[in-house]
Specification:
Layout: H1 2-8, H2 11-36, H3 43-47, H4 50-65, H5 71-100, H6 123-129, E1 141-142, E2 145-146, H7 147-171, H8 179-185, H9 190-197
Antiparallel strand pairs: 1-2
Length: 198
């Protein structure tokens, strides 16, 4: 409970910056693994980045305009971020299940390679040009979790923070969004002003 209260104290703007920062760090980490440590990414790994490509700039934009824009716009944008990250967490669970062998993965990155020799040309030339990174083989694990598993945790954290920020924006409890303008309109009503503006 204390963590929730401390995070709520950041306000909508601070939480939006936090979501963007966590997403940026996760994406930079993925690039470091890919380009620095040569841990190749499978098609499912690459698909899990799409949500970050949406959530990072949208969260940053929301943080920039949080004090000036209407609460509904800020809250709605943060709900979009949360939904994208929840969908991404689901994709990460699916990918983790493929890695653990709980269910079959997509045919383009799991299962036997059966299309060799059908495209014309020599088999040796085809083998030299193919780079297949399998979705059902874990490239790296730490504390029992693969990168897909860590993506689930990070995506869920980002979704929860975005939902908390959206709730704060809609309730106007952080003084952000259009609340400051709303508070000025309530100058004559002390009780209403206190409940809206703290």
């Amino acid at each position: 409970m204390r963590i929730g209260c401390a995070l709520a104290g950041c306000g909508t703007q601070g939480l939006a910056w936090l979501v963007a920062g966590i997403g940026a760090q996760a994406l930079i980490g993925a690039w470091i693994f890919q380009y620095g440590f040569h841990i190749l990414q499978c098609p499912l790994c690459l698909e899990q980045r799409y949500a970050y490509y949406l959530a990072i700039p949208l969260s940053a934009l929301i943080a920039l305009i949080a004090r000036r824009a209407p609460r509904a716009l800020i809250g709605g944008g943060l709900v979009v971020v949360a939904l994208a990250m929840l969908i991404n967490a689901g994709l990460g669970v699916y990918h983790s299940g493929v890695e653990w062998g709980w269910w079959a993965g997509p045919k383009d990155c799991t299962g036997p390679i059966t299309e060799l020799g059908k495209g014309g040309g020599s088999l040796l030339n085809q083998l030299n040009t193919i780079t297949l990174v399998r979705c059902d083989e874990v490239q790296w694990r730490f504390l029992g979790l693969s990168l897909a598993g860590y993506n689930v945790l990070i995506s869920l954290a980002m979704a929860l923070l975005a939902l908390l920020a959206a709730a704060l924006a809609w309730c106007g409890k952080d003084g952000g969004g259009a609340c400051a303008a709303d508070c000025k309109a309530l100058d004559g009503n002390a009780a209403a002003r206190k409940s809206c503006c703290r």
